[in-house]
Each structure stands twice: as structure tokens, then as C-alpha cells.
Design a protein that fits this description.
The chain is an alpha+beta fold. It is about 35% helix and about 40% strand.
């Protein structure tokens, strides 16, 4: 019985030692690399809004529908019947007059707003698209955004560059303590796409000048690398 107890104690002690060895962490270094890839955009999105006001909800809605229909018709004439145009927002809200003396508000009319977004890959006519929408009845151009149809190649390039920088940082830190880097045992990524955002006002010139700029793809990579003598 004593011999069996001794064996059990020896087995438990060996298990503890093995667990301690398996959970002991080898020295390592964590390093972060960052990279930005700038690419010419190949897609643009423009948001046009038609905002109308009238004394009744029906009048505001009807007037708005008439102007929006004309905007859509003119944009389709320019871009083709298969143009990528869709409604992204619509609202019909009452307008009130609030007396300064704190009395009850008075209903004075209604505001109807309809926003459509145009997406196109023909960046050479962006100014013409804006002019066409405004001349057709849009009284707000709320945003103009340049981006990429497929940003994956640029993301891959940025990640590769950021990883190389992180490895270089790890090598430098290891060298600073008289060691070398070994195997990479963990790696994390982060990618951000920064499209070009413009906010043009109402177009009055025959052709609105537009500069597309560049789309920035930013990548951050953090690695954990073993240290070896």
C-alpha cells in the first residue's frame, strides 16, 4: 500500500513538473509595422437631394416627386438607362413656428426631402454629372466620394509592407539585447480604407471642376516573435 502511494506521489510530482515546463513561456518580442498604399480611385458616388417646402404635406410631396423625377430622367439620359442610381433617404416632416414668449407652436407647412445616390466608374464626367443633377432640380449635393471597385489588391500590398516593417522592428529590438528573432508565433492585422471625400455645393459654372485625388489603404500588423541566443 505504501509502495502504491509512493508511485502515485511520484506520478503527481512528474505531472506538475511537466505542466510547469509546458506552460513556461519562451522569451519573445512584439513589434508593430504600418504601411499606406495610395491608389487612384476608379469609382465615384454622388448624393443628390431634392428638398421642397409647401403649406400642405400633399403639396410638398407632389412638388418633390416632380423634381426628383426630372433629376432621375436627366441623369439617366447622361449615364444610360442602366445607370446605378438608387434612393437612399426620404422624409416628409412638419414645420412649426415656435413663439418667443413660450406659447404653443404653430404648424406652418411641410418639408419633403428625397436623396438619391449615383455610382459611376466614368470619373471623367463627374463634373458634368453634378451639373446635370443640379440643373435638373437637385438643390443639395450632400457628398461626393471616390473609392475603389476592388480594394483587395491594395490591401494585400499594404499588409505585406506592414508585415515587413514589423519584422524589421522585431529584428532591431532583438539585436539591441544581443539576441536574434526566431519563429513568429502570432500575427494580427488591421486595415483601414480612406476614400476621398468632397462636399461640393450647388454648381453654377458650365462645368464643375473636380479633382479625384488618391484613395489611401492603411494597414497595421503586429507580430510576436520568439527570441533566441
Amino acid at each position: 500500500m505504501r509502495f502504491l502511494g509512493f508511485l502515485l506521489f511520484s506520478f503527481a510530482l512528474a505531472s506538475v513538473n511537466l505542466l510547469a515546463q509546458s506552460t513556461a513561456r519562451s522569451p519573445f518580442v512584439r513589434a508593430t509595422g504600418q504601411a499606406t498604399v495610395s491608389v487612384k480611385p476608379d469609382q465615384a458616388r454622388i448624393s443628390f437631394s431634392v428638398v421642397t417646402q409647401a403649406s400642405t404635406a400633399q403639396s410638398a410631396s407632389t412638388e418633390n416627386a416632380t423634381q426628383v423625377s426630372n433629376v432621375l430622367s436627366q441623369l439617366q439620359t447622361l449615364l444610360g438607362m442602366n445607370a446605378d442610381i438608387k434612393t437612399i433617404d426620404y422624409s416628409l416632416t412638419p414645420n412649426y413656428n415656435y413663439p418667443q414668449n413660450g406659447g404653443l407652436p404653430t404648424l406652418i407647412g411641410y418639408t419633403a426631402s428625397n436623396t438619391v445616390r449615383v455610382t459611376t466608374t466614368n470619373l471623367s464626367i463627374i463634373g458634368q454629372v453634378i451639373d446635370t443633377g443640379v440643373q435638373a432640380g437637385a438643390n443639395q449635393v450632400s457628398s461626393l466620394q471616390f473609392g475603389l471597385q476592388d480594394d483587395q489588391p491594395a490591401q494585400n500590398q499594404a499588409l505585406k509592407m506592414a508585415t515587413a516593417q514589423a519584422k524589421a522592428h522585431a529584428d532591431a529590438m532583438a539585436s539591441g539585447v544581443g539576441q536574434h528573432t526566431g519563429a513568429i508565433n502570432a500575427i494580427e492585422e488591421g486595415v483601414a480604407v480612406s476614400p476621398v471625400l468632397l462636399a461640393p455645393g450647388a454648381a453654377t459654372a458650365p462645368s464643375t471642376p473636380i479633382v479625384t485625388g488618391l484613395v489611401d489603404i492603411q494597414a497595421t500588423v503586429t507580430i510576436q516573435v520568439d527570441l533566441v541566443l
